[in-house]
Amino acid sequence: MRMKSKALAGRGRLELDTPCLALDLDLLDANLRNMQARVRAGNKILRPHAKTHKCSKLARRQIEAGAPGLCAAKVSEAEALVRAGLRNILVTGPVVTSEKIRRLAGCREADPKLAVVLDDFENARALNAAMAGSGQKLDVLVDVDVGLGRTGVPPERAGELARKVMEQPNLRFRGIQAYAGHVQHIRDHALRRAESLACMAPAAEAVRALRAAGAECEVLSGAGTGTFDCDLEIPELTELQAGSYAVMDAEYMAIGSASNPDRFDEFKPALTLFTTVVSANQAGFVTLDAGLKAVYQHGGRPYPVSGRDSGSTYDWFGDEYGRLTFAAGARQPRVGDVVELVVSHCDPTINLHDEFMVTRNGRVVDAWPIDLRGCCR
Fold first, then answer.
1. Which of 18, 84, 99, 191 is the residue whose CA sits 20 to 30 A from 370?
2. Considering the entire predicted model, what is its pTM?
3. pLDDT tens digits, 293-317
4. In CATH, what class is 3-20+266-369?
């Protein structure tokens, strides 16, 4: 624990200094076990994305639950994970500048299983040059665009780029990455399944074509929390890059699952934000101490967890404040009352905080530094 948090051990969750992020350890572990079991039953590998929680302690817990490796969005995230003693990291975005390539090569020295994606031949040449003289090969996945349009080559060009990667003496072609991020939050499960399978089909075809041509295309990495169960149906998919499943948020909780059209009940919201009522002078709403600097304004709307505040609606009320509007006839919160919220979008909200207060049975048991916070390079 950090010094400022040690004194909180044993305190009740409602005694925490706010605004603060809390992790319910039992819900977190249940989410980790659930996803690990589902992926294992589908004969796939789970490679959780650390960009969600930005916490090496949580990442280690995912490894202990059975994940063989992790994803990182940026080189700086990979560096932090490697410093924490974690290995088998896949950097899921292209690394193109000389400074970042140099740092990536440094990570490779510590992590023999480090891998990176690329979608450009000149980038492959630069990575190859950086590894020259090291006596090491850098594992590479070709990033394939399956409709998001953010990064990746068109599926029909994947084979051409893969063959060029194979010609580089200091690179080792491992396979393909394909991420359909634009379908993860489609509310209707049947439509989400159909869209994801359709998007991923060209990537699966690219894998089959490479294998038919004699290439060692071992990996098809992709998928996400919203489509994990759908993508388990894809025979060519070898590993899932889900991240939000561990902690969840309002945006994901609002989509339907295979069994519930109104709620994504596959995983529980282990992450919540505690905030305090600081003013109660207006009719119909109170002011909270958590605004834009404490909970990110993107995705779903934060909502109260407690039944006491059910029916209340959160809205942002400036940088430092939030507004909790309560239904007519409902109990009006008082100054000093603590409200627990499921956050809007977990990834960027977590990046606003220094630590998680870890709780069990309503009591603080630990504090985990969000040590990947700000790692965006």
1. 99
2. 0.95
3. 999 998 889 999 976 567 799 999 9
4. mainly beta
